[in-house]
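Researcher: We're teaching a course module on how sequence relates to structure. For the next exercise, students receive a sequence and then see the predicted structure as tokens, so they can try to spot secondary structure elements on their own. Here is the exercise chain.
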Amino acid sequence: MKDLGKINSLQLYNLWKNFTVGLVTLIATTAISRMLPYYLSPVVSLVAAAILYLYIYNSKSEGETSSCMIVPYAVLVGLMGYSFVTIILNVVETWGIMHVPAEFIFFSDPFIPSLILTPVCFLVMLNYVIRHKNFHKCSICKECKLHSGNASTNSVLVRLLSHETYFQLKNLTIMFGILAVIIWSYYLIFYVNINLNARDSYIFIWLMIIFFVLDEMYFISRYFNLYLDLKENDEIISPEELHDMSAKTYLRYYVICGNNMFLDCHALDPGAPYKEIIDTPFFTKRTVNGIAVDEVKRIIERMTGYPGGELRFFYGRKNIDHKNSILRYFYFLDGDVSQYQDMNVDGEWIDFEKVKYLYSNNPGKLSPIAVIDTTRLATIILTEKIFDDNGFRKSKIKMYNPSFNLVDVKKSDLDFQDDKWIEISLFNSDTPMYRLKRWWRGFISGSKRKGQWR
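Model: And here is the predicted structure for the students to work with:
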């Protein structure tokens, strides 16, 4: 478990890189908009937003799932917001709906993009700062959790990404807030509407670029020092160590009898050794890349002391950064829990209804991996009960909220390794304008297959 708790130096580099990509995009957008004709300014920002989108999409496709993309995504939203606000202001002026100052019209000279860009980006960043505790509801975060493999089981990495992403967003919010105040104060008090002199250009253009460059230098220093701190605490794995590291397969079993699960109520949290949590006691490691099913079953029979149960694969994910993989299995025992009181490990039988209650009301009592696994299990089973393969509700009653238990899990023939039902849970007929969005996704993906969710 110690290996899973370490951070790859590349993960720290990607954290800085994603922030840098966002800042460089803003610098390039500001500089290029200045060099090209003013009326191309919204086009430049939309092109920059498209480049950021491709960067985010390609990073996810290449497996960089252990790096948070919220900051470049927020910059993307800010650039799109700037483009749309600029276009709307020009349409309002062109149609004579209301008078708009010439500095906001890209067909006039001078056009000052920073008057729009800074307050729009400030509001976007502020929105994400306020919503930081609900990032899991953002579409990009849902996709990241879906495809993150075992990254989410690394509590050290999760805390680092969460803290640093929030810090980066807060930093950008403060920076855009200060820039907006300075630029608008200068515009309202000192600016003379004749032409842009050297002082005007410094305030409206170069001041913003200087802020971005200084901020980038600060974060270079910050993450270099953070790397040194983590390395000193032996929490960093270098690329060389990764290359020499042997592949490991972690086996995690959920032993079930009826609607009861055998759990250890006094397990220790790897991220906080002083804290007791509830987790399965059936967890082991093998220094091999993959294990035969027969061996997997022999291991759980030895750990429980009760052979003859039904072994069923739950799901598994390979951790690309650590060359490790965690495989989850169900081990179903027939009969009553009274027949299985002498397990070879410490623990007790707990009714699954209590587990669901803790999961819903006090998830901190459960281990982080148990919460992740329960989320996947519940999402797949409940989504399949509510929706069909095309994402439409099976029942016309929208208030229909089914439940499930471990007996349903045993009877189910669902493939929990397949992400299909999780993708449907994120995008289904409950989504506003679902049919149109579904058609559009199929159109841009160039696929006419049903069930094409991404």
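Model: If you want an answer key for the exercise: The first helix runs from residue 9 to 35. The radius of gyration is 27 Å.
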